[in-house]
Specification:
This protein has 442 residues and is an alpha/beta fold. The chain has three domains: 118 residues, NAD(P)-binding Rossmann-like Domain (Rossmann fold, 3-Layer(aba) Sandwich); 167 residues, Dihydrodipicolinate Reductase, domain 2; 62 residues, no CATH class. It has 16 helices and 18 strands. The protein has a seven-stranded parallel β-sheet, sandwiched between helices. A seven-stranded mixed β-sheet has the order 10-11-12-7-15-16-18, with helices on one face.
């Protein structure tokens, strides 16, 4: 029986653990909180839970876990993936992650090839399903003798429409720190042949309304990181437009802009006295007297009226209130994360939703077409979230394919080759994760 080590038992671990156990693998779940690992495994005889904290563990402790498995899945924060990869290379064990390939991970490509192992990354939802579903259409167009003129892709993990019950119109289906940190990223894309660069501090000024077919709620889109490498990754040098964007409910970008402008995205730790409140922290970040009315100071600073949706969001979150900041040594970003973690949770009966839309314009020998590919996936009521299924199941399928010898490529990979994406997408459809297609002549 092949052994799979899963490092991390967080919000997306449940579906891949269940899938791998049901497909005949032994699964060792190693987590800082052993009870979380036990919860995912249940009473399955092939499941093993171990306590393991990557932030405190020695290199030797990680090595001990890795050398006993056939493949390691890192669901840890991305900053630890390279550490895991080096251990996998050392013991010639395969590895899978759902995260973007970092420059440090990419630099391990030759070492992984020399070790004869596969390190498959970006096989979650975004990145993951986005790559695979887009490449399927691109390859089909190319096989028909066509060329891509424009490609725009959008993705968002959101509350289902009936779960939009907070002023923020958002709830957490993955790490709050990850959500907020993503708002610090600069962005870059190509539009009609011209490169557009956006600084991190200007990210939330660059958004526009984006209606989603089949959904009544209002959404907005903004750029996601650097889109331009995907011109080469997707093998579409002919395209004039390449844009990858994030979807959120309307009002998100205005609010997150003020989160950033007020200093709540800063990652440098502050030394605070005991009993320091969020109202005082807001004043401190704004450079105002600590005993001032933080709501009034905020409105004056940003020229907002009390009725503004931004004020309502900040007040509801407690950023003008008397709740004490949870630590005397904390960054503004982590202070905000604490409130998000507290206030933006799903209730047991609520569902999340994953939206992904690809917009293609391409030219075939017989003429031009517009192709809209849309996935709207809802979490299962009283069951796994959509985020956990759409991230975790592609990952688990990739694990199975590697261990069954269906993926034999060596080195650092992402799933853009047909022999990888076709079977993964096919199995996802069987698991009710798929797209609807609309094609029109232009």
């Amino acid at each position: 029986m092949k052994k799979v080590l899963i490092l991390g038992a967080g919000m997306v671990a449940g579906p891949p653990v269940k899938y791998l156990l049901e497909n005949g693998f032994q699964v060792i779940v190693a987590s800082r909180t052993k009870s979380k690992a036990i919860k995912h495994i249940g009473d399955h005889p092939n499941g093993i839970a171990k306590e393991f904290d990557i932030t405190k563990a020695s290199k030797e402790e990680l090595d001990e876990l890795v050398k006993e498995c056939d493949l390691a899945v890192s669901l840890l924060p991305y900053i630890y993936h390279v550490q895991v990869a080096k251990s996998c290379i050392k013991f010639k064990k395969h590895m899978v992650t759902t995260s973007y390939v970092s420059p440090e991970m990419k630099a391990l490509d030759q070492e992984a090839k020399d070790a004869g192992i596969t390190i498959l990354n970006e096989i979650g939802v975004d990145p993951g399903i986005d790559h695979m579903s887009a490449k399927k259409i691109i390859d089909d167009v190319h096989e028909k003798g066509g060329k891509i003129l424009s490609f725009k892709s959008y993705c968002g993990g959101l509350p289902a429409p009936d779960a939009v019950t907070t002023p923020w119109k958002y709830k957490l289906s993955w790490s709050p720190r990850g959500v907020i940190l993503a708002g610090r990223n600069p962005a870059k894309y190509q539009e009609d042949g011209k490169i557009v660069d956006i600084l991190g501090e200007d990210l939330f000024d660059n958004y526009y309304p984006y209606p989603v077919e089949g959904l009544e709620d209002d959404y907005e889109a903004y750029p996601n990181r650097d889109s331009t490498p995907y011109i080469d990754i997707y093998e579409i040098p002919e395209t004039k437009t390449m844009f990858r964007g994030t979807l959120r409910n309307t009002g998100w970008c205005r609010a997150l802009k003020k989160v950033a402008d007020s200093g709540y995205m800063d990652i440098e730790e502050l030394e605070l006295p005991a009993g320091f409140t969020y109202a005082q922290l807001t004043n401190k970040l704004l450079g105002k007297p600590l005993d001032a009315d933080s709501k009034q100071e905020f409105m004056k600073k940003f020229n907002l009226v009390a009725e503004d949706d931004i004020i309502h969001r900040f007040e509801w979150m407690g950023l003008f209130g008397n709740e004490e900041v949870p630590s005397t040594k904390i960054s503004p970003l982590d202070a905000l994360c604490y409130l998000w973690e507290k206030n933006l949770q799903y209730s047991p009966s609520e569902r999340d939703m994953l939206i992904m839309v690809h917009e293609f314009e391409y030219e075939l020998p017989e003429g031009k077409e517009r192709h809209i590919s849309t996935m709207v996936d809802l979490g299962i009521k009283d069951g796994p979230t959509s985020m956990s299924r759409t991230v975790g199941l592609p990952c688990a399928i990739g694990v199975r394919m590697i261990l069954e010898g269906k993926i034999t490529d060596k080195g650092v990979l992402i799933p853009v080759q047909k022999h990888i994406y076709e079977p993964v997408l096919k199995e996802l459809e069987e698991l009710n994760i798929g797209f609807t297609e609309r094609i029109e002549k232009i």
